[in-house]
Design brief:
The protein has one domain: Immunoglobulin-like, CATH 2.60.40.420. The radius of gyration is 18 Å and the shape is globular. The chain has one helix at residues 55-58; strands spanning 19-20, 24-25, 31-39, 48-50, 61-63, 79-83, 96-101, 106-107, 110-114, 118-121, 129-135, 138-145, 151-154, 159-165, 169-179, 184-186, 192-198, 201-209, 213-221, 225-233. The strands form 5 sheets. Strands 1, 2, 3, 17 and 20 form a 5-stranded mixed β-sheet that branches. Residues 3-16 have low confidence and may be disordered. Helix content is 2%, strand content 49%. It is built from 1 helix and 20 strands.
Length: 235
């Protein structure tokens, strides 16, 4: 199970708050799961994280990326994954992602990748950072990143990686969900996601957010159809 380091209270959502529509037919045998994640409550004002080191470059504060909500309530940075026996044997060639340091923040803040993918660590800032990744309590890697250094790491185990900068940059964090299969997505700035090429079958769709916790839904993906699943996550 994916677990956040400190999930907020109320990690389940009321099934009545989810909306599953009838499938829209597509060409071919594979199906698609798509929808929107929305915040279930009055959106708080955008947060700011205090900066107390390297202020000459970083400034006195940076935007808080842990809860980003658009005017319509769409939730950014929700990771959607699928699990189920019908997905076994459907791995794809490992991909490549990167994690940069930009303006005293990790970028992107949340991403997902398949097991076996390559992670490129780099630093676009003129100051020293590091990337300390943990899977639960276990350190997976801890790399110093001067501006000129590039480090490649293989994401060899599934789970939730939390990455921090330990050079007194405590406001910096990032997350990578490493999936055992290629059927995952991360919601965009409007809370939208889509997972394509899914073999027909019945699966568990899981939704993870660093502050709002987790939710899961049973979903049936039919041949050549797009199934929509919209979910409301509580504050």
């Amino acid at each position: 199970m994916l677990t956040a380091a400190s999930p907020a209270a109320g990690q389940a959502v009321n099934p009545a708050e989810s909306r599953v529509s009838a499938p829209h037919r597509l060409s071919g045998n594979a199906g698609t799961l798509a929808g929107t994640l929305r915040f279930g409550g009055s959106a708080p004002p955008p947060g700011v994280l205090r900066v107390y080191k390297e202020q000459a470059f970083c400034g006195s504060g940076v935007p808080d990326p842990s809860l980003v909500i658009d005017p319509a309530g769409g939730l950014k940075n929700v990771v959607v994954t699928l699990s189920g026996t019908g997905l076994q044997g459907h791995a794809r060639p490992p991909g490549a992602i990167q994690l940069d340091n930009v303006g005293c923040r990790f970028a992107p803040h949340v991403q997902a990748a398949q097991v076996g993918s390559t992670l490129l660590l780099l630093n676009s800032d003129p100051i020293l950072h590091d990337a300390h990744a943990r899977l639960g309590r276990r350190t997976v890697f801890n790399d110093g990143l001067p501006w000129w250094r590039r480090v490649k790491r293989t994401l060899s185990r599934p789970g939730l990686l939390k990455i921090i900068c330990e050079l007194h940059h405590a406001w910096m964090s990032a997350y990578i969900v490493v999936s055992p299969n290629p059927f995952f997505a991360v919601t965009d700035s409007r809370g939208r996601y889509a997972i394509e090429g899914i073999p027909p079958g019945t699966y568990e769709a899981r939704f993870w957010h660093e502050r709002l916790g987790e939710a899961s839904r049973r979903v049936v993906v039919e041949p050549g159809a797009e199934r929509r699943l919209d979910v409301l996550l509580p504050p």
